[in-house]
Write a structure and sequence with these properties.
single chain, 0% helix, 298 residues, three-stranded parallel beta sheet, 26 strands, 50% strand, mainly beta
């Protein structure tokens, strides 16, 4: 039988510790750490979390129309199977080492160091603001999500993205198995040191983006105002539908693009024959930034 707790204000450390099979409605959890630690089968509706560590070591949690205030920091750690919808998440470091996380129509106003080392994540129709979101997490699905903050998803694995926007420097570094559809990415140094990265129908703007990658696919993409791309990228398969400012020293693969503002192929660093470039408008130019570099060849 489900216990109903309604129109209540609580204070004190671990005030509802170990609560099971309960529904909290219009409840405020005030000053006091870990108010719902080790809870199970809990629904929280129209409520407010005001203090630290509200949901630790919990199982089967559903949260609707609820606010996590700024001091509810480090709020949801070691918790499995949690759904949050139509809620405002103001606190940093909110998720760590959780599994089975579903978020819909949520707003992270300060997502710094949030969603670290988590698994099985689905986020839809949401806004995220903060650096280092999603670090070292796995099995992630994003749809209609806006992320503003640097270093998003550093070290993450198995990511699928649809109709999202990123304003993020150094996004998707050290990643494995990322597919991004119909999205906009704005931020320098995109996806370095990663492997198995695919962009489909995307618009990308990135200074020195998409370097040091193994197995990079760009299908029907635009790389607007993107320079020095593809440096030391192996197994590239790129079909670009708009001009690119510059390409530098790809290792191997095939690139099709209508225009290249500057093509740098240094035979002292890579074998130019291993990359096939299909383009009718290429400008070759000596790279003044590298005085040791030999003249360029195609």
């Amino acid at each position: 039988m489900t216990e109903i707790i309604k129109d209540k204000y609580f204070e004190g450390e671990r005030i509802l510790y170990g609560l099971k099979d309960a529904e909290l409605i219009d409840v405020t959890l005030g000053h006091g750490e870990s108010p719902l630690k080790e809870a199970k089968n809990i629904t929280v509706i129209d409520s407010v979390f005001k203090w630290k560590y509200p949901l630790w070591y919990d199982e089967n949690i559903k949260v609707e129309r609820t606010t996590f205030e700024t001091m509810a920091r480090s709020g949801i750690w070691y918790t499995n199977n949690i759904q949050i919808s139509n809620s405002s998440l103001q606190a940093p470091k909110l998720f760590r080492r959780g599994k089975g996380i579903t978020l819909d129509h949520v707003h992270f106003s300060d997502a710094e160091e949030t969603m670290w080392t988590c698994q099985d994540i689905k986020i839809t129709n949401s806004d995220i603001n903060g650096d280092y979101f999603g670090k070292d997490s796995e099995n992630i699905y994003l749809e209609n999500v806006n992320i503003i903050g640097n270093y998003a998803f550093d070290g993450a694995k198995n990511i699928e993205v649809h109709n999202c926007q990123f304003v993020s420097k150094d996004a998707f570094w050290n990643c494995d198995n990322v597919t991004i559809y119909d999205s906009i990415i704005d931020g320098e140094y995109l996806a370095w040191n990663s492997k198995h990265i695919k962009f489909v129908n995307c618009k990308i703007e990135s200074n020195q983006g998409l370097n040091y990658i193994d197995d990079l696919v760009l299908d029907n993409c635009k790389l607007n105002h993107t320079d020095l791309a593809f440096e030391y990228v192996s197994n590239i398969k790129a079909t670009l539908i708009a001009p690119i400012e510059s390409i530098k020293n790809p290792i191997s693969g095939k690139i099709k693009v209508p225009k290249i503002g500057r093509l740098i192929m240094d035979p002292t660093k890579i074998d130019p024959e291993k990359t096939k470039i299909i383009c009718n408008d290429i400008k070759e130019e000596f790279d003044q930034s590298d005085t040791n570099q030999a003249p360029k060849e195609i």
